Amino acid sequence: MQIDGAVALVTGANRGLGQRISEQLVSRGAKVYGAARRPGSVTTPGVIPVHVDVTDADSVAAAAAATGDVTLLVNNAGMASSATLLTGPMDEVRATMESHFFGTLSVTRAFAPQLIANAPGAVLNVVSVLSWLHPQVLGAYAAAKTALWAQSDAIREEFAPHGVAVTALHIGFMDTDMIADLDTVKTDPGIIAAMAVDGVERGVIEVLTDEMTREAKAALSRERIAGAENTFEAWL
């Protein structure tokens, strides 16, 4: 889709990748609604603040009712979690799935009518390399992102007859506050934002942002080779 003249709504637009994607969209001529739980924290010039808590259906419905002109939906909002699946707090496991899977689905369902009505349009889902790598230390997060990957594929088929494309953005380590304490090589979120918007503009199915992500995707289609080089910890 053409970004110049598009109307985008970006969830989690107040910081990190969501802020960088908003900046990219504005710089390329899009009108941008910046959605966040605290609209006052959305400070990017040219971005229109909108209240959205993706886990609150009423706020999602209100945002959809207050717009009507959206042609690009960017599902970026989510929560960090280091809960393991066997011993982590069950409330945190549920909250992680609620944020990444059900929250994203809730926003997409709410905005689907206007995306279809205003087609051609697009959805960008921010997924993760952890949709393909499932370390036990990040079990809840990996499970939620894997579910989001499946959601992205399924809604792509549903949207296809209506002229709405779906792009999944897969990211390894990114230099944001979510993994600020992790000592490893991280990609600048501004670079990832540019790649993401380029991918939407080209209508690609997936954007793989780094070598770790490309290797993880490639490993899905070949026999797994035993050894430390294939473990999550080897990337740290």
Automatic annotation (TrEMBL):
InterPro entries: NAD(P)-bd_dom_sf, SDR_fam. Pfam families: adh_short (PF00106). Gene3D superfamilies: NAD(P)-binding Rossmann-like Domain. Keywords: Oxidoreductase. SUPFAM superfamilies: NAD(P)-binding Rossmann-fold domains (SSF51735). GO terms for molecular function: oxidoreductase activity. GO terms for cellular component: cytosol. It comes from the Bacteria. Belongs to the short-chain dehydrogenases/reductases (SDR) family. This is SDR family oxidoreductase. It comes from Mycobacterium yunnanensis.
